[in-house]
């Protein structure tokens, strides 16, 4: 691939633009726990969580399922979803990176496994969403990364060409999924690292 071919930059949201920390969410929700890792894995690795990310169920329905299947109280699940949203703080300089990419003339897009209610929270809480030229949210389509269809949906909806597009995501399997459909992709670690990796592909920022 010729480096100068890149015309579009696609951003994941969790741990690229805002923080996503399941263990922190569980610790805040259940402060009496001495260890949060196992419960975080169970809650956020469950079919319940996958279903809300696919848009199959609402947040209210998801809370009810957690109450039934995990024996959580109504207050537990209310607190859980409060912290799911409130812990998603902006990563340092993430909005500024999106702005620099956009101001340099590249198309900027979002591709995220995410929940309808959380996306609305992000849109009303922060200004970054309006910077995107377009976005694909898993809950709108009923499919998740790294399924090829979600990357193809992004390209089809916005007329993007894979070889002209680079995707930034913190998860290696999602990076591999993007590469499998012909995109360039970067495993994101920090704004500084991500920007350097974009520049190494020939982007002028």
TrEMBL record:
<protein>
    <recommendedName>
        <fullName>HAD family hydrolase</fullName>
    </recommendedName>
</protein>
<dbReference type="InterPro" id="IPR006439">
    <property type="entry name" value="HAD-SF_hydro_IA"/>
</dbReference>
<dbReference type="InterPro" id="IPR036412">
    <property type="entry name" value="HAD-like_sf"/>
</dbReference>
<dbReference type="Pfam" id="PF00702">
    <property type="entry name" value="Hydrolase"/>
</dbReference>
<dbReference type="InterPro" id="IPR023198">
    <property type="entry name" value="PGP-like_dom2"/>
</dbReference>
<dbReference type="InterPro" id="IPR023214">
    <property type="entry name" value="HAD_sf"/>
</dbReference>
